[in-house]
Amino acid sequence: xxxxxxxxxxxxxxxxxxxxxxxxxxxxxxxxxxxxxxxxxxxxxxxxxxxxxxxxxxxxxxxxxxxxxxxxxxxxxxxxxxxxxxxxxxxxxxxxxxxxxxxxxxxxxxxxxxxxxxxxxxxxxxxxxxxxxxxxxxxxxxxxxxxxxxxxxxxxxxxxxxxxxxxxxxxxxxxxxxxxxxxxxxxxxxxxxxxxxxxxxxxxxxxxxxxxxxxxxxxxxxxxxxxxxxxxxxxxxxxxxxxxxxxxxxxxxxxxxxxxxxxxxxxxxxxxxxxxxxxxxxxxxxxxxxxxxxxxxxxxxxxxxxxxxxxxxxxxxxxxxxxxxxxxxxxxxxxxxxxxxxxxxxxxxxxxxxxxxxxxxxxxxxxxxxxxxxxxxxxxxxxxxxxx
Length: 388
Ligand SMILES: CC(C)(COP(=O)(O)OP(=O)(O)OC[C@H]1O[C@@H](n2cnc3c(N)ncnc32)[C@H](O)[C@@H]1OP(=O)(O)O)[C@@H](O)C(=O)NCCC(=O)NCCS
Prior knowledge:
The protein has 388 residues and is an all-alpha fold. 55% of the residues lie in helices and 3% in strands. It folds into 2 domains: 46-232 and 353-364, Citrate Synthase, domain 1 (Orthogonal Bundle); 235-334, CATH 1.10.230.10. It has helices at residues 48-54, 57-66, 72-84, 90-98, 105-119, 127-152, 166-175, 181-193, 201-211, 216-227, 235-245, 249-261, 279-294, 298-315, 324-334, 342-361; strands at 32-35, 40-43, 46-47. A 3-stranded antiparallel beta sheet has the order 1-2-3. It binds coenzyme A. Coenzyme A binds at residues 20, 231, 235, 265-272, 315, 318, 320, 323-325.
């Protein structure tokens, strides 16, 4: 069946299912819409390209959670709560410092969110309590991620500043320097573009956990665990690692051809829903050129364009184009951000979508409980060990 923007569905409905729950409908939502045929992404009715250009992450998070663009006083209050919650309990910082330096920051982020939950007496989830916890998590995930970046490099932690905007403070806490206007704009835009994306794996994971009426911290921690995988958020790291190994146009073309010949999936390409160019990738690509040039990495940008060209030549007819993870990695790399931080940054943004969708589902929550098609026997008799 075809869906229209804002279309209502009468449950139960008939759908065609594919592996990986393809085609399955989990719920109704007015938070965001991914139009895979037109290549359009909408948050609460607004085109994400418009939001990326004109909004801020704070305003977009408000929009996702509360369903409308805020008035000035509403945004001021939301912003105040985000700023107020930036501090991290020193006991949590100690826990993070004790984890092995070699552990991936996403694993440490899982620990951080579980720890934040342990230090916050909120254990049940309802809309009011969940909203409070959600705002705290949106704020604290940025602080914790920046702290993890410093801990990984054996650098002193930088305390958050309450006078800076969310993206600005995040970059400040990573580098110790107040970022320039372009850096702040690009990070803000990256946070807006990653904030929500339909019923993707991590959003679904966090909603499944919340549907058991588990608390917001557990649900967000589960979302982080799911986002970590290379087929989901982790793709941005692998994509960049592939690109920086390529030293010339010829090598880039050959690498893609080898991947095609050996049927190796190329990270940063393809999408379950988009069968045309990912609209987020289009926006990132525009900024990637400028940011790479500014960082003296125009060659890396050119390599990326060549890889895109080869992949699209081979797979464009199958609906495989760059996704959000392809050009975002170039941008982060040019901003001087370590590759291991790319997926955590995704989480710093996507937490807004997770929180919004959990809160939307909560008032009429029903525990998620799909079924598997059982293919095993049903009539075996138990045999004692000595008779097997
Ligand atoms: C995103 C992704 C998981 C979607 O998966 P999916 O909807 O289950 O699609 P499939 O993995 O079943 O792929 C369908 C076909 O396209 C091919 N394909 C999909 N993505 C591909 C890629 N990045 N490179 C090469 N081939 C790809 C598959 O090999 C498969 O081909 P086949 O029909 O000949 O077997 C998949 O495109 C992928 O693994 N991309 C790389 C990881 C990535 O960038 N993830 C970030 C997503 S935002």
